[in-house]
Amino acid sequence: MLTVPRRGLLESAVFTATFGHKELIFPTPAHAETQLEPTIGFYKYKVGSIEVTAVYDGIWRKPHDPTFIKNASVEETKAALAKTGLTTEFVPIPLTVIVLKIGNKHVMVDAGSGVGQWQANATHLPANMKAAGIDANQISTILVSHFHPDHVWGLMEKGTNSAVFPNAELIVNGAEYRWWTEPGRVEKLAEGRRAAGKRIADVFPTWKNWTLVEDNAEVAPGVRLVAAPGHTPGHSAFLVASGKEQLLVSNDTMYLPALLAPHPEWQGAYDQDGPTAVATRRKLVDRVIADNTMICGAHFPFPAAGVFTKDGDAYTFVPVVQS
Ligand SMILES: [Zn+2]
Fold first, then answer.
1. pTM (predicted TM-score)
2. H helix runs in the chain, sequence order
3. Å from CA of 55 to ligand 1 middle
4. 75 CA distance to ligand 1 centroid (A)?
5. Ligand 1 centre distance from Cα of residue 7 (Å)
6. CA atoms of 298 and 161, how far apart (whole Å)
7. Is 258 helix (H, G, I), strand (E, B) or coil?
8. Digit-coded pLDDT (tens) for 204-223
9. Across the chain, what does the average pLDDT equal?
10. Nearest 10 degrees: Cα torsion 37, 159, 186, 150
């Protein structure tokens, strides 16, 4: 069982909690996020009988930009990064993909950014997956959280756009699929989004292996889609449950805990509908706290999992560190 630490424990240097059969080591937040890139690019843990493998893709060292957080200055952003021990030279945006082994089935959440298709340093997914003992050909289902490049470019080959996983079932919230592929969408997108939107609209509808689902649908044994709109119209999380244990694969709901745990009200430039994204963030994080649920996120510091605790009107993120 996951033991959520009490506030007092957060102030001790290191403490442990058990989750499933594994003892996790939690550092204090002040020491938690100083290492940007992992030395071992995969990490396995259990949720009941489901094996979770976090696979590291890479990191975007995003230059500071006053438009990145709509309602915070660069100085406020830097102060939040510094508070968790992160560099303030740039905004570190790591990317991790989750693979669930459910019985003999391999279910991946999102497909990563595609080697060399997003950021120069996000190239590690194939090698790390192999190192974790996962054969990409074994992936039978891909749960897609939303259609941003860092989550779906890994579905397409660079240059040709041919399908990387032609035999896997691709499951996505119908709201997300319909929004990006509806006639006239590309022209309505902001200029900076048009090239990505066109790639999606040109390629995805030509594939026959999509399954469109709605909120709360069971998308794999023990896994349900949780609609989490705001970041994109059909952005979704996935709740993994086995036995008495639960993990919320939150994707981009709370993408950078260093910034958004202390400031859940901050609206990122990539949150398409800022106020809805903030409301969804609070709702989901309150839910994982109330239900004693572990959480992982695509841009959390590797291995991209941990727990949240309440801190007044905001939150504290307590990450798992690779042991
Ligand atoms: Zn993302």
1. 0.90
2. 7-10, 29-32, 74-83, 125-131, 149-152, 174-181, 185-188, 194-203, 257-260, 274-290
3. 15
4. 23
5. 30
6. 23
7. helix
8. 999 999 999 999 999 999 99
9. 90
10. -10
